[in-house]
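Progress against Task 2.4 (sequence-to-structure conversion) is shown through the following example record, which the project officer requested during the mid-term review.
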Amino acid sequence: MDTAAVFRSPQDPTAAGSAAVRPGGSVTALVRPVEHPLGHLDLLESLAIFIIREVAAESERPVLLFSGGKDSAVLLHLASKAFKPGKIPFPVLHVDTGHNFAEVLAYRDAQVEAEGARLIVASVQDSIDQGRVADPGPIASRNRLQTTTLLDAINAHGFDAAFGGARRDEDKARAKERVLSFRDSFGQWDPKAQRPELWQLYQGRVRPGEHLRAFPLSDWTELDIWQYIWREHIELPSIYYAHEREVIERDGMLLAVSEWVSPETSEEVRKETVRFRTVGDATCTGAVRSSADSVEEIIREVSASRISERGATRADDRFSETAMEDRKREGYF
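Structure tokens generated for the chain above:
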């Protein structure tokens, strides 16, 4: 359905300049014609800002989850728009695995400072030091350990709502989740006990001890994200654009050589022109071969892709067929 058409006023050719309704015509004829119909990005932006404002109004202590990736960059931008000319009225939380790309950490600090927001960093290393999670070793992935660190941070600060940048097209488990995802006192998610969201009516009230995750980007696709980044001139970490990097090929993925990733016996280090479609723990986030070094070129590349960014580049999602859903049940993003 053409949403903008609802607001266009059908003109009666027999009554020049008249806005009268024709016999049997729609009452929408009385509405002033729209000279500039909304595009799909405008509608996505409007709904996302509506969700952010609704949750912020309903909650006592919301927080925005920020990884430094493209989705959280768009989410931070939308939160800034939602409350202009004021500042974002809630803090920004980053769960730091300790295995992050240096470019992403530098970007995180610069963006949060530019928005005038308060940054809270929850460290997986602290969780290991406190005995909350087992140490997997210096070069093993820490992605699955983030859940405990996140839940501890939510409890320590008393957050009752957390905004996340998840999208339904990322993974089939994401597609099961509503815009508002309610978590019990243990941070767990039950996909069979979700509240209905009819006609974009959201029930944000939580019981004592519970909290909710809000996903304003649920209806966005990877292509929508990149088109919005292009339109809004949103800055991203440099690793999203094509560059030369030393990589090794492991399990069909190109992993960047770093202090946590080094070649095994049969692996060869080589320089490739690559970029990252998503960011995360450097031990399990792969790059893709690409020459796309601008947003316009990335949009063309993503338009032709038939594999989601997580399916192509995240080893932690290949753990099992239900890897993402299992982690979300435990309290993951």
